[in-house]
Amino acid sequence: MAIRNAPPRLVLASASPRRRTLLAQIGVVPAEIVAPEIDERPRPRELPRDLARRLAIAKAEAGAALCPDTCVLAADTVVACGRRVLPKAEDAAAARRCLSLLSGRRHRVFGGVAVLHADGRVTARVVVTVVTFKRLSEHEIADYLASEEWHGKAGGYAVQGRAAALVRHLNGSYSNVVGLPLFETAALLRGIGCWPGPTDGPILTA
Fold this sequence. Notes:
Blueprint: E1 2-4, E2 10-13, H1 17-25, E3 32-34, H2 48-66, E4 71-81, E5 84-85, H3 92-102, E6 106-116, E7 122-133, H4 138-147, E8 167-171, H5 174-178, H6 182-191, E9 203-205
Parallel strand pairs: 2-3, 2-4
Antiparallel strand pairs: 1-9, 4-5, 4-6, 6-7, 7-8
């Protein structure tokens, strides 16, 4: 009978309730949740894909600083029209600008995911989903703004809510648009040896 040590505790470096719900969907319950603060502003001429990857890694590293000797999972979602990065809508005016820009157009959602192991190894992926909105009337925009689902959401919408009725086509990972690409996240956790398991002692294997 062989004995292997339990994997390190898994920490989620995100305050997003959506990411916690998505992880629970695949049976992953972090031992701890932290919300590291980093500068999320894009750098000059930084592409959306590069931004998503950089921010995910930065969040993982910041989470590891708060919780050393753990396995840290972090993610970031970037919504972009071409090379233009849309903001996280903090007020109705910003959400309206996003929805007006997305109306009748195709855009991309870049999901950066990073896993930082207790020994300092880091693995990151960027998942891209293409989303096409129907052409929105002023009434539809006003109705969605009234729902306030847009608050704090990248691109000014939440696909898991009322905005689902605005999406004409989605190509790629749906969970990525919600906030975390589950297939890739599970693969990263397994690949770095941080797939959740018993943490109260050594694991016995035949």
